[in-house]
Write a structure and sequence with these properties.
Structural class of chain A: mainly alpha
Strand content of chain A: under 5%
Low-confidence stretches of chain A: none
Oligomer: heterodimer
Number of strands of chain B: 0
Radius of gyration of chain B: 19 Å
Order of helices and strands of chain A: H
Number of helices of chain A: 1
Number of strands of chain A: 0
Largest sheet of chain A: none
Distance between the termini of chain A: 34 Å
Helix content of chain A: 10-25%
Chain lengths: 21, 223
Amino acid sequence: NHDYHFGLEEGEGVSELFDCD
Amino acid sequence: PPQTPVRAAMNSIQQLKVILNSASDKPSENLKRYFSNCTVNPSEDVAQRVECLGRAFSDRFALAVGQGCTEIGSQRFTLGIRLYYRVMESMVKSEEERLSVQNFSKLLNNNAFHTSLLACALEVVTATYGWSPFKSGSTSETDLSFPWILDVFELRAFDFYKVIESFIKVEPSLKRDMIKHLERCEHRIMESIAWRSDSALFELLKQSKEQEGHVDHAEPPST
């Protein structure tokens, strides 16, 4: 019940985001 | 009684305290199990990092609010730690379901991940306490508002950005106002903070281009 836009798609989560650098 | 801005702020603090009073400031048994499933067990590093960042937070809190408020800083850090462990457990559980793996060694040994997650938890605590219905300029509390925590933890804005969405996704206790606040943090990072001249993002972009074989110079930030 909020307007936050969830932008992460399938295959994108913290595991992938912190793996890239 | 009618809902006034002051009452709303007090209610938010009370709700946060109720949720976190029942949480632990140490990793739960479930979280310990995730740690022990790692190729390299991160438990010791996690505990040391928490101690080190706790000192940094308390020192900077006292500097901003006053040396007499050290205890308050320590109490807020403890609330942040409880939220940090609570969200970490939910986040890893959610990743386990999404990826069908049990070994999160890489993620749970990533310093930027932990520092960002703790910073986000503390941003929620600090913003809950710092909300003022009166826009009367800079007060001691508003000095602690975002991006203060990035400076305290020497954290790269785009690393902080990486945890926000997942944090919102797995923490059901966040109220609409807090989600809005975190969304504003996201926008500030995306629109300005990540693009400041000293941002490591330019170096990363350059490296990325070089890896692709196209050596272009990253554009400097506009004024």
